[in-house]
Amino acid sequence: MKSKRKLISVGIVVALAVVFGIAISAANQDKYTLKVPGGLAFSEFRGYENWEVIAASQGGEIIAVIVGNPVIIKAFKDGVPGNGKPFPDGSKMVKIHWNAKVNQGVPGASLMPVSEHDVDLMVKDSKRFPDGHGWGYGTFVIDPASNTFRPGNTSDKPPQEHDAKCGVECHEAAQSRDYVFTQLMPK
Question: Which residues, other chains included, contact 104 with Cβ-Cβ below 8 Å and sequence gap of 6+?
Fold first, then answer.
């Protein structure tokens, strides 16, 4: 029961953080003008702030929420990739990461987001990204000093190349799931 309450608390905090974190970064920069060199443009994901949540996770002091466009949400609900079918072209996911810390002032000393860290983008487009098994990737890191995004680079942790193939190697481990680690969160 305690872990269920904790999971619900984290879910509520993460949902509020999505809205709050996106509103802050959007106020300081038109992120939709950014593009990964030779690859994905942030503008291809316009409106992701209103997409349905696929999953939430926490690792160390990072909280993440993954949202998906209607195409990928429908595919997940239809059983992809567990039914052996691949995600259709047009499937899009955005993974939003926040730096977090324990807030001792709330019941249960919950982990709370304190600043946005980065946004990862993923789109299925077999014609455009044949080298990525049909998937294109992009990472945009937020600079805490200026509260603006920039394309990820090799000095980031984890290091990111300057093209839309930056996630291909990592996602090889999920080949049996059409290169997608995420599963639709039970509701």
Answer: none
Q: What residues contact residue 42 under an 8 Å CB cut-off, 6+ apart?
A: 31, 32, 33, 34, 35, 121, 138, 140, 149
Phi, psi of 180, deg, nearest 5? -120, 120
CA dihedral 168, 43, 35, 96 (to 10 degrees): -60
Instruction: State how far the alpha carbon of 34 is from the alpha carbons of 22, 110, 130, in Å.
Output: 15, 34, 23
Digit-coded pLDDT (tens) for 91-141: 999 999 999 998 888 888 788 888 888 999 999 999 999 988 999 988 888
Q: Domain locations in the chain?
A: 2-177
CATH number of this structure's domain 2-177? 3.50.70
Give the predicted TM-score (pTM) of the model: 0.79
